[in-house]
C-alpha cells in the first residue's frame, strides 16, 4: 500500500473535487495525507481516516518572501512524511509542491493542471509581466514530475506549444468527474413556466458574470417573469466582484442572488437551464453536476467549457464575452421549452458516458499504478 500526499489550494477542494478519489484510496488501504492552507475540511477528512496538515500557502497574490517560505515549509513536511506519491492540484500547489518534492528523490510526483488561472486569461500589464515567470516555473515543475494531468486538450496544446512540457508526459482527464449517484437525474418535468436559469460559480469576472447580468437585462425587458439566478461564494481574486455590486444588481431586479451553499443539488433541481459564460476553464465541475442532474447547458465556446456541450444536443455554445449571443441562446429555451427536457436527457447521457467519476478515478489510479 502507498503513502499518498495531496496538496490543494484550499481545504474545501477535497470535498468539492477530490472526495470520491480520496474515499476510494482510503478504502483500498492506502495512507492518505491531505495538505491545505485552511482547516475548514479537516474534520470531514479526519472522519474517513485522512491525516490533515495545514500549510502556509496563499492561493492568490504574489509575495516572493511568503512564497519562498511556502516552498521550504512544504519541503520540510515532505521530508518528514516521506510519501511515496505527491499529487498537486491547481496553480500554486503544482508550482510549489513539485519544487518542494524535489528534495526527496524517491517520491513520485503527479501534477494536475485544473485551469490556467488569472495570468493566462487577460492582457493587463500585470499579467504580461507575470507570464514569463509563471512559464519558467511551470517548466521547472514539469521537469521534476512523473506525469501531468490536464482537464482539456486546449490547455495541453498551449503548454506543449510554449515548450513547457513534452506530450508523452501528459494524460488528459475528463475533469474531476461527477458522482452520478449523488447527482442523480431529476425526474421532474423541466419545461414548466416560468423558466429558471441558474449560474453556479465563484463571484468573479472571469466566470462571465458581467455578461450574464447584461443578458439578464436584455431578457427581463421581454420576459419579466423569467427567473435568472446566481449562486456561489465571493472570492479573493484579481477579478473578484464585490458584494455591493451584487446587491445593486439585486435591487435593480436583474437577478436573484442565492448566496453560498455546501449542496447545490436542491438549487439545480428547481432550475431548468444551467448557464456558465466563463472565459476559460479546466473542466467546470459545476457544469458536470448540472449535466448529471439532467439540465441543458449554455456555455462558452472556449477551452474547458466547449468539451462539455455538443451544440444543439445537450445545450448551446456561445462566443466568449458576448452578452447578446448569451441572451439569444437563453431565449431559445424560453421560446422552445420542449428543448429543456430533450437536451437535459442528453446531458445526463453524456455525463454517464464521459464524466462518471469512477471512470476518471480509475484512469488516475492506473496511471499512478496504485
From TrEMBL:
* InterPro entries, per the entry: Glyco_trans_1, Glyco_trans_4-like_N, Glycosyltransferase_grp1
What's the superkingdom here? Bacteria
Glycosyltransferase subfamily 4-like N-terminal domain location: 19-171
Q: Which SUPFAM superfamilies match?
A: UDP-Glycosyltransferase/glycogen phosphorylase (SSF53756)
Q: Locate the Glycosyl transferase family domain: which residues? A: 190-339
Q: Which Pfam families does the annotation name?
A: Glyco_trans_4_4 (PF13579), Glycos_transf_1 (PF00534)
List the GO molecular function terms.
Answer: glycosyltransferase activity
Q: What is this protein called?
A: Glycosyltransferase
Q: What is the lineage of its organism?
A: Bacteria, Bacillati, Bacillota, Bacilli, Bacillales
Amino acid at each position: 500500500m502507498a503513502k499518498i500526499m495531496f496538496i490543494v489550494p484550499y481545504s474545501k477542494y477535497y470535498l468539492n473535487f477530490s472526495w470520491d478519489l480520496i474515499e476510494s484510496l482510503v478504502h483500498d488501504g492506502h495512507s492518505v495525507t491531505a495538505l491545505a492552507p485552511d482547516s475548514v475540511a479537516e474534520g470531514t477528512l479526519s472522519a474517513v481516516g485522512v491525516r490533515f496538515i495545514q500549510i502556509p500557502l496563499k492561493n492568490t497574490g504574489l509575495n516572493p518572501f511568503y512564497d519562498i517560505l511556502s516552498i521550504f515549509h512544504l519541503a520540510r513536511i515532505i521530508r518528514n512524511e516521506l510519501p511515496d506519491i505527491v499529487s498537486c492540484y491547481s496553480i500554486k500547489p503544482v508550482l510549489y509542491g513539485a519544487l518542494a518534492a524535489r528534495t526527496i528523490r524517491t517520491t513520485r510526483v503527479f501534477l494536475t493542471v485544473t485551469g490556467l488561472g488569472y495570468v493566462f486569461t487577460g492582457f493587463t500589464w500585470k499579467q504580461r509581466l507575470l507570464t514569463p515567470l509563471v512559464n519558467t516555473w511551470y517548466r521547472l515543475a514539469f521537469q521534476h514530475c512523473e506525469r501531468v494531468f490536464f482537464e482539456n486538450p486546449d490547455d495541453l496544446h498551449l503548454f506543449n506549444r510554449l515548450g513547457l512540457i513534452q506530450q508523452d508526459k501528459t494524460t488528459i482527464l475528463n475533469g474531476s468527474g461527477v458522482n452520478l449517484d449523488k447527482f442523480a437525474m431529476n425526474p421532474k418535468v423541466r419545461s414548466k413556466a416560468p423558466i429558471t436559469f441558474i449560474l453556479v460559480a465563484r463571484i468573479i469576472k472571469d466566470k462571465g458574470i458581467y455578461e450574464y447580468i447584461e443578458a439578464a437585462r436584455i431578457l427581463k425587458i421581454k420576459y419579466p417573469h423569467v427567473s435568472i439566478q446566481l449562486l456561489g461564494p465571493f472570492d479573493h481574486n484579481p477579478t473578484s466582484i464585490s458584494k455591493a455590486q451584487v446587491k445593486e444588481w439585486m435591487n435593480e431586479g436583474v437577478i436573484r442572488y442565492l448566496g453560498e451553499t455546501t449542496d447545490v443539488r436542491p438549487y439545480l433541481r428547481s432550475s431548468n437551464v444551467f448557464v456558465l459564460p466563463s472565459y476559460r476553464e479546466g473542466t467546470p465541475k459545476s457544469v458536470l453536476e448540472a449535466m448529471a442532474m439532467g439540465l441543458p447547458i449554455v456555455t462558452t465556446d472556449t477551452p474547458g467549457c466547449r468539451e462539455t456541450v455538443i451544440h444543439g444536443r445537450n445545450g448551446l455554445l456561445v462566443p466568449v464575452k458576448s452578452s447578446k449571443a448569451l441572451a439569444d441562446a437563453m431565449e431559445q429555451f424560453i421560446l422552445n421549452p420542449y428543448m429543456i427536457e430533450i437536451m437535459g436527457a442528453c446531458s445526463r447521457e453524456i455525463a454517464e458516458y464521459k464524466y462518471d467519476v469512477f471512470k476518471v478515478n480509475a484512469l488516475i489510479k492506473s496511471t499512478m499504478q496504485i
